[in-house]
Specification:
By secondary structure, the chain is an alpha/beta fold. The protein contains 13 helices and 16 strands. The longest helix is centred in the C-terminal third of the chain and has 16 residues.
Length: 316
């Protein structure tokens, strides 16, 4: 079963890791949001790509979900002492990733090529692709003006009130090499439990990627390729990050059914937590099959268990 996962952030990285445990590496492609990317200290930072790759490689910090395990902070502390920008924390091991990525990009390599090289070095089996080699920065429309995503997310701690989002340059962007082909050849596409507004929407905004998902090939008569999403909203809250806050500020009650409606035109299947099982009938009425299960992933075994449940559901 060939699977494409769309992912960004900690929740997305966890399910991507579960899928990597459950599938042969050649059967899994993970397309990662790069709308969070930005430049800091003169370096190219790719937070979601690094979170997914560190998690797959077993290098992620288990306490934060982002950054490297066994990290040290001497460079960061020295920069802060010297009066440099200290609102975005970068550890010493993580700093090495950004320095080498920036060097390779400045030498003319593409982001997808650099990501592939890093994955080989870290022993990651599945193919990990940025959604595009073109920059597509996410801009957050707020009551404090239009803010680059990391300015909103980290520097201002998600405090400004959100009114919308913009993905700059996406109209002209091309998917990373291999991304479109992976979707076209997939038996199933899974939207990981990532923020729908700023992790999955940027990927779907890449024109040819969305059109491929909107009209996926069929396996046979009456047997459409499965396109599924796992809800990041449980009991009206996000386990991590501002997704629920964004829904509320956009005038939408945060809930599993709100997530299902968010993707309604693309999905054949929807997976959500047992805490929200009373919404099963309403979600079913949207024209998609529903799987109610424990979607919380506290351990590495939880990731594999959820991935296997999702894959088994999609094969029925």
């Amino acid at each position: 079963m060939k699977v494409v996962a769309l992912a960004g952030g900690v929740g997305g990285a966890k399910l991507a890791d579960g899928l990597a445990q459950a599938l042969p590496p050649e059967d899994l492609t993970i397309i990662v949001n790069t709308g969070d990317d930005f430049e800091h200290w003169g370096l190219k930072i790719c937070p979601d790509l690094d979170t997914v790759c560190y998690t797959l490689a077993g290098l992620a910090n288990p306490e934060t979900g982002w950054g490297r395990v066994d990290e040290s902070w001497q460079a960061f502390e020295n920069i802060a002492t010297l009066g440099g920008a200290d609102w975005f924390r970068i550890g010493d091991r993580d700093l090495g990733t950004h320095i080498e990525r920036t060097r390779r990009l400045n030498a003319g390599e593409t982001l997808s090529a650099v990501t592939a090289a890093f994955c080989r070095a870290w022993g990651i089996g599945p193919r990990v692709l940025p959604m595009s080699d073109d920059p597509i920065p996410t801009m957050v429309l707020t009551n404090d003006g239009v803010l680059p995503f990391q300015e909103y997310f980290v520097h201002q701690r998600c405090e400004p009130r959100v009114s919308g989002f913009r993905f700059e340059g996406v109209e002209q962007a091309q998917p990373a090499p291999g991304a479109l082909e992976a979707i076209e050849n997939a038996d199933a596409v899974i939207f990981c439990p990532s923020n729908p507004w700023v992790s999955i929407n940027p990927v779907l905004a890449v024109p040819t990627l969305r059109s491929a998902l909107a009209a996926p090939p069929t396996l046979g008569e009456g047997d459409r390729v499965k396109v599924a999403a796992v809800s990041p909203i449980i009991g009206g809250q996000a386990l991590k990050g501002p997704a629920a806050k964004m829904y509320a500020e956009l005038g939408i009650q945060p809930s599993a059914i709100a997530v299902a409606q968010h993707y309604q035109d693309l999905l054949t299947d929807f997976i959500f937590d047992t805490l929200d099982q009373e919404q099963a009938a309403a979600i079913g009425s949207l024209g998609m099959r529903a799987l109610v299960t424990d979607t919380v992933m506290k351990t590495k075994d939880d990731r594999r268990r959820l991935a296997e449940e999702v894959l088994q559901f999609l094969t029925r």
